[in-house]
Amino acid sequence: MQLLSQELRQSLPALRAQETISDPIVHARFFTPDSNWTWLVTEGSPEGDDFIFFGYVCGFEEEWGYFSLHELESARGPMHLPIERDLFFRPAPLSSVVASSR
């Protein structure tokens, strides 16, 4: 599965574009199918030969952070399954995405 489609690449706001917005729009959801890690992407920009995302990461802790496409593509869950992109995800404010996942 292609994590960063051309459509997603073009629709993502650049890094820091939503930093003054209290409830930013989540544009993509990545997840590990064999664990409980989720990456809610709010922004992203190319950097060298990689692509850097910013978003809300839910794993051992819930926190804002930067993560790269290369990191996502190389990471594996406990059963060695790759990270996937939620193909049915529709952009929405972070508050509603988090509320619907609880």
Strand order of the largest sheet: 5-4-3-2-6
Instruction: Summarize the main sheet.
Output: 5 strands, antiparallel
Overall strand count:
7
Tell me the radius of gyration. 13 Å
Integer average pLDDT: 95
Q: Which residues sit in consecutive blocks of at least 5 with pLDDT less than 50?
A: none
Q: Can you write the helix and strand succession as a string?
A: HEEEEEHEEH
- Secondary-structure-based class equals alpha+beta
Strand content: 35-45%
Count of the separate structural domains: 1
Count of helical stretches: 3
Topology overview:
Elements (H helix, E strand, L loop, with lengths): L5 H6 L13 E2 L1 E4 L6 E10 L2 E9 L3 E7 H6 L9 E2 L6 E2 H8 L1
Antiparallel strand pairs: 1-7, 2-3, 2-6, 3-4, 4-5
Explain the overall architecture.
20% of the residues lie in helices and 35% in strands. The protein is of the alpha+beta class and 102 residues long. The chain has one domain. A 5-stranded antiparallel β-sheet has the order 5-4-3-2-6. Strand 3 (38-47) and strand 4 (50-58) form a beta hairpin. 22% of the residues are buried. The mean pLDDT is 95.
Write a concise keyword list for the protein shown above.
102 residues, alpha+beta, 5-stranded antiparallel sheet
